[in-house]
Automatic annotation (TrEMBL):
This is L-ribulose-5-phosphate 3-epimerase. InterPro entries: L-Ru-5P_3-Epase, Sugar_Epim/Isomerase, Xyl_isomerase-like_sf, Xyl_isomerase-like_TIM-brl. GO terms for molecular function: intramolecular oxidoreductase activity, interconverting aldoses and ketoses; L-ribulose-5-phosphate 3-epimerase activity. GO terms for biological process: L-ascorbic acid metabolic process. SUPFAM superfamilies: Xylose isomerase-like. PANTHER family: ISOMERASE, L-RIBULOSE-5-PHOSPHATE 3-EPIMERASE ULAE. Keywords: Isomerase. Gene3D superfamilies: Divalent-metal-dependent TIM barrel enzymes. Pfam families: AP_endonuc_2 (PF01261). Residues 27-273 form the Xylose isomerase-like TIM barrel domain.
Amino acid sequence: MNIVKNTPVGIYEKALPETMSWMEKLNLAAECGYDFLEISIDESESKLERLHWNRYQKSELLQGILATGIPILSMCLSGHRKYPMGSESNSTRQRSLDIMEKAIQFSVDLGIRVIQLAGYDVYYEAGNEKTKELYCESMRQSVELASKANVILAIENMDHPFMNSISKVMEYIDLYQSPMLQAYPDIGNLTAWDLSIKEELCKGGGHIVGIHIKDTVNQVFRRIDFGEGIVDFSKAFQVLYELHYQGPFVIEMWSENNVDSKEKMIYARQWVQEKMKHAGYIFT
């Protein structure tokens, strides 16, 4: 895959069968026509354990990347849902920062450019002004860690009122004024919240370093097949093209337990790329 010449379209790891080895996952991504993979570090202990891999385990994945030509350009770090950065528990908040530090080091070792952060102060409990203040302080420390490693942190607008728009994401980008903190819009989430795709993407402007692509309906954020939801993909891609966005797009799917996951991956890429071509994006 030649990412430099193409508009890069990647696939979220959870679209692939979870029982596959890394070599099998990377090969499958290549077979389905994708340019890269976005790795998942969610709140499950098995995924969080990846941050403790030794050199041999990391080397094994790097060998797979070199053998298949499919890099891992981004990490979806949703482990903070269980260990939130705005938690009023000191031990939980410290765990969140430990996860962040290890995720940054993992990214350096594996060549990952962007860590996508879920925009939550807390998730499984009610937030308040205190959790927001604590989140701000944890984010400050996280940006400092990322800056030292030259790894970009990018906040995604979420399925949660705390950070459900790019406008809210930009408040934090403006607050910290660091090139290591940017925006990672999810156009499906924008639509599910009935927000203007054009207005929100324009507010992100030159701070956008990744795009999550999925279909949604009102207040339903996951597992909607492409074409069955209400997202105006044509408008979204047109706005991004007019903003001169040429960065990576990630198709976000959860088909890891589906027997037809490969067929779904191929269909999704073809369906999405056709919409992108109409907006002006080129695929060779």
